[in-house]
Write a structure and sequence with these properties.
By secondary structure, the chain is mainly beta. It has a single domain, classed as lipopolysaccharide transport protein A fold (Sandwich). The protein is about 10% helix and about 55% strand. It contains two helices and 14 strands; from the N terminus they run H-E-E-E-E-E-E-E-E-E-E-E-E-E-E-H. The chain has a six-stranded antiparallel barrel with strand order 2-3-6-7-5-4. The longest helix is centred in the first third of the chain and has 13 residues. The two termini are about 25 Å apart.
């Protein structure tokens, strides 16, 4: 088990994205449940969507997406609303000095409001304040369970090491994260070895 506390800012990003219903993923052919067959016009669509959050006249978050779709579908005889970013998204979080402290992007995103489920697919990249990067092709956030997980290959790139695993799960604060079948590649300076 690897515990990484450096990703706390990412949780804030995930929570803001979840309130915006704007998580992204890639709509690949053959994936029938990503976007429904539209037999009608969606409730709402937006192109080149951009949203900026501020607090006391300071930018705290910026969200952009080439396209945002809001619509409904019937699940178990109930109409459920969902939001999709079929062409990707970027969310950036800023500190009080205007410095970016977190970023998440992906090729496609989907939020299912009734399930409190947010999904990102395709080139999912999460960057934290310390410069650590998490990369995967699939990321799911279950808000009610406060759980984030990926069932596919994950790579975490840090200053002096790369950690990989074939899947992972974590609490929403990234404090108690488990990488399955993990491997660590570390850069070791020869001078450090000789001095020990």
């Amino acid at each position: 088990m690897l515990v990484i506390k450096k990703y706390r800012n990412i949780v804030a990003l995930l929570l803001v994205v979840s309130t915006l219903f704007l998580f992204s993923c890639n709509n690949s052919e053959g994936d029938e449940n990503i976007l429904p067959d539209y037999k009608h016009e969606p409730i709402s669509t937006a192109e080149n969507f951009s949203l900026t959050f501020t607090d006391s006249a300071k930018v705290t978050m910026h969200f952009t997406a080439p396209e945002l779709i809001i619509d409904t579908k019937e699940i178990n005889e109930e109409v459920q609303q969902f939001k999709v970013c079929p062409k990707g998204f970027i969310v950036e979080r800023f500190n009080n000095d205007g410095v970016m402290v977190g970023k998440i992007s992906a090729d496609y995103g989907k939020q299912e409001e009734a399930l409190n489920r947010f999904e990102a697919r395709g080139n999912v990249v999460v960057l934290n304040e310390k410069g650590d990067t998490l990369k995967t092709e699939h990321l799911i956030y279950l808000q009610k369970k406060k759980k984030i997980y990926s069932d596919v290959f994950v790579k975490i790139i840090q200053e002096n090491r790369i950690i990989t695993g074939d899947s992972f799960e974590s609490d929403e604060n990234f404090e108690n994260r488990v990488l399955y079948n993990s491997k660590i590649q570390m850069d070791i300076d020869n001078e450090d070895i000789q001095n020990k």
